[in-house]
Amino acid sequence: MTGNRHLPSVAAAYGAQGFGYAAIVTVLPEFKDRLGISDIVVSLLLLGTCLAAALGSVAAEAIAVRWGSGRALTAALGAQAVALVGAATLGNLPLFAVALTLYGIGLGGVDAASNMQGVLVQRKAGRQLLGRFYAGYTAAAIAGALLVAGLLALELPAVIALFAAAAVHSGVALLGFDPEGTVRQRDTGGSLPWPAIRIVGALVFAAFVVDSAVATWSTVYLADGLGAVAAVTPLGYAAYQAAVLGARLTVDAAVARSGRTPVALGAVAAGLAGCALVAALPLVPGAIVGFAAAGLCAGALVPIAFSAAGAVRPERSDEIIATVNLFNYAGALAGAVLPGLISAGPALRAAFLLPAVCLLLVLPLVRRVDRLTGAQGR
């Protein structure tokens, strides 16, 4: 089997993940009203989902080591499909929380196993592919958000989006995975390369601090901090997502041409400049440009980091990727929670120095990525 043969099915898994995640987070306001719950309860549900995702990542590693990452990915997609149907149909808070927890487990499992499969396909194809896989995730997430918006505009129930996402996950689970055939990573003797895991994990952590901070607080800052009109406030996140998609569409070619380290350094520099611009220039155009620059950083850094993780020790790549994936959720929590604790209103712009500091701290580690993974990461 070749990497090219499995490329469409693995790409579909990334797309299903993005579509489903966008669908469920954008229907939360409707469920908040339907279940009569407060913002605090919504925050606790999201926190529980994030913790469940970490558990799902660990479960994906265990399944992948014993039966292969293809089966781990199929199981996680199936769990998400069941959870999405449950979330759409269950009418009370405890059962909805159970469905959301199951979704979180599936979310973490797909995050880890899709990266395992993506790295294996990339290795067999002999070329960089992870950026394009992540571009599929981003494009599908945009499609999921637009679907919910269209349903609401037509005064249709947004839960239709959850049924659509469940159907997509079920369909993708039937495609079949595992480009390594019957090869399993059963040789788990010896310790994992923890110094390399910490370095690559730090890059993932910083990227998701940026991502979560912009996703959670960009609209709030434009509205409450800069007094932008309602029609303008979503533009910061829209510019961010457009930049993420652009970075992911081009990062594979850039890495193939120049290596991981130079491209990662450029991504970190763009993120530093973008976050600093938001913090230093309290103007709507400056903030939107800054969020776009941050998108270039997160868009490129995530696929570079997971690609590097898979190349540290190829015979243990499933375990290493699942472990590195845990840094994702730590970064997402930090980026979502800490800016709001640091400041509010106009002063919220200073909170965007938090992702800048994270990027500054990992800057020395970026220079070590190619040394971890071989000549120029190619």
Q: What tags apply to this protein structure?
A:
378 residues; 2 domains; Growth Hormone, Chain: A; 15 helices; 0% strand
In CATH terms, what is the fold-level topology of the largest domain? Growth Hormone, Chain: A
The structural class is mainly alpha
Number of helices: 15
CATH fourth-tier homologous superfamily of the largest domain: MFS general substrate transporter like domains
Q: Taking Cα atoms only, what radius of gyration do you get, to the nearest Å?
A: 20 Å
Estimated helix fraction: over 70%
Description:
- By secondary structure, the chain is an all-alpha fold.
- It has two domains: 171 residues, MFS general substrate transporter like domains (Growth Hormone, Chain: A); 184 residues, Growth Hormone, Chain: A (Up-down Bundle).
- Helix 1 packs parallel to helix 4, helix 4 packs antiparallel against helix 7 and helix 6 packs across helix 11.
- The longest helix has 33 residues.
- It is globular and about 50 Å long.
- The two termini are 22 Å apart.
